[in-house]
């Protein structure tokens, strides 16, 4: 707690929110600094990569920066700078019979604690979104990317100074000590929101320990349901994209549900498509009755977020059975139905508890950029506050402004 | 956890949400049952009151039911039955350049755990709001009102049965054991939201122990600021109402801030008005320079939620100083400014971090009924999700429905 109390100058909403021009200027200046200091950042990143020899290839890839990745970070900052300011928007307004006018207005949440794993670029992306939404942020990246994060933060700090904003608006954790994460999670009254970005282990730990609200998803166990009335060509195109476009992201489909009415004709084609893309399968008995060469699924496979080129497959009897399967095994992240039957599609969408339901589109569209939010800081599956892609707008809470003419309450 | 797991049939959003007619019928039938069983409820309540002889007069008053209070409960149920259904509302809708149509739709939060102290009528009010918003609720009242809550719950259960809804939609805690509260607070995955209603001790305990999101306010340390350009008659009327209409509610003003420019002429009148209504004072040195007979305030008095006929008084130099006082001592609940100067009013409203800011109106308007929400289940001062009065609409979260024509993500 003391480390946090000392580290954080807790800005009031008005301190930062009134300075949106400054936030945009800071983001642009930070982008310029990233480009100017590319060599310096690459050197810091090389030291990080060299200092962590035991990493898996995938982890090493996420950790490694290149000139192109640094330029992409800079462009990200510039794009966020151009987005409309979310704070101060009127979300709703109405007048009471006694003449009181009530307005619901967006305001920043306050201080956001960002806890993430290997990707050093999160430092810049998260800082830009928090700054533009009037929030202050404390960034705590993985210990293996400390030098990279430090070099990127130096550019952000340069941007803040260029725009006359306080250094406290974007801070990196002063220590790699794991106890600092624990302190952040318990810093109620100093930190208003925790956003963890990383594997299920990190997110689960954060959800269990945090005394502060958390926006997160622990898993993206997404389903694509091919309904009896699906257009076969569309189904093949959407499934291939939903599963194989990128297998490691949370919006990737992990389980295919095929309606029994269409499975005999369509499932062999879907399997052939995906196999050609390098996908493996875990299929239930009814799917194996149609495609006998599919490996058999264990019950646990339907509760597994593969994050890899593996697809669980089950044959189901109609929308109700698809919903029941999703309710039993899903993670309330994103599910899609492919069908030409509008009534079936709406029944599916209304029956889901998930944050996002898709009709005739790939589950991989669950993304702040694809939703038109400009950028995202994460994806939330909780039932409180923001759900789905979390962008600038979702980084704001609201307050009421009430306009009277002397009303007193009877 | 096991007690919760056994007690709760966790309904999916669609189970309950699709049955709004049923929810309204259940509320009406429960209201009829409350009226039919008035004698039975009064007898149970008498036993509760007799069983708790050491209570303060105020606590005993909150615990005691009368035929009029039971009828008010029944009317409350009937009023909630008539409110528009909040679930399924389209909160926002837009189309992406690739043709994807995205709709943000209101849905129930899930299972709500309601923890409250003496007032047995909360049993009926909370049940009606949760039912109508498609949520299930577990009610855990104070141990001293168990018999009353049981008798009221019997009427609610009768309403559920009459409408064909599952008993699990409205449950009372099966035990007065305090450990049950602890289990509710840790029942992540079974309980989606905790709403505590009671004193600061209860709410603070809940905020500290809960592993589940909490909607709450620990204190309502509300301020009324009389600006230099206030209309004196309006200021007197608003302050008297804001402080003395009811002193024990969270929206009651606890601190008066008077601008130095108007204090010499107005403060003596404000003091005389309130004194005539039985109010006592704790004043800073600048206020006592104008009204020397006011008792001196200690610093701690400005951080005290009196919930009584006591008013802290300070003289401040302009809007900035008023905001600074509120930031240092307030609880981000409700603050009011009285002024004829629109620019000063907007500066005050924009500078607040509080959930509700009022211009030329009494702080006691911070109430779901007064906001036009039909009813309220509580008032929230957190920065996440709902803030201010929490009614039907705020008992919903949202999800996205995305309508495609076969889009796949590039």
Automatic annotation (TrEMBL), chains A, B:
Keywords: Amino-acid biosynthesis, Cytoplasm, NADP, Oxidoreductase, Proline biosynthesis. Signal peptide: none annotated. It is an enzyme of class 1 (oxidoreductase). It catalyses: L-glutamate 5-semialdehyde + phosphate + NADP(+) = L-glutamyl 5-phosphate + NADPH + H(+). Pathway: Amino-acid biosynthesis; L-proline biosynthesis; L-glutamate 5-semialdehyde from L-glutamate: step 2/2. InterPro entries: Ald_DH/histidinol_DH (IPR016161), Ald_DH_C (IPR016163), Ald_DH_N (IPR016162), Aldehyde_DH_dom (IPR015590), G-glutamylP_reductase_CS (IPR020593), Glu-5-SA_DH (IPR012134), GPR_dom (IPR000965). The keyword Cytoplasm applies. It is found in: Cytoplasm. Residues 26-277 form the Aldehyde dehydrogenase domain. Pfam families: Aldedh. It comes from the Bacteria. Its EC number is 1.2.1.41. Belongs to the gamma-glutamyl phosphate reductase family. Catalyzes the NADPH-dependent reduction of L-glutamate 5-phosphate into L-glutamate 5-semialdehyde and phosphate. The product spontaneously undergoes cyclization to form 1-pyrroline-5-carboxylate. PANTHER family: DELTA-1-PYRROLINE-5-CARBOXYLATE SYNTHASE (PTHR11063:SF8), GLUTAMATE SEMIALDEHYDE DEHYDROGENASE (PTHR11063). This is Gamma-glutamyl phosphate reductase.
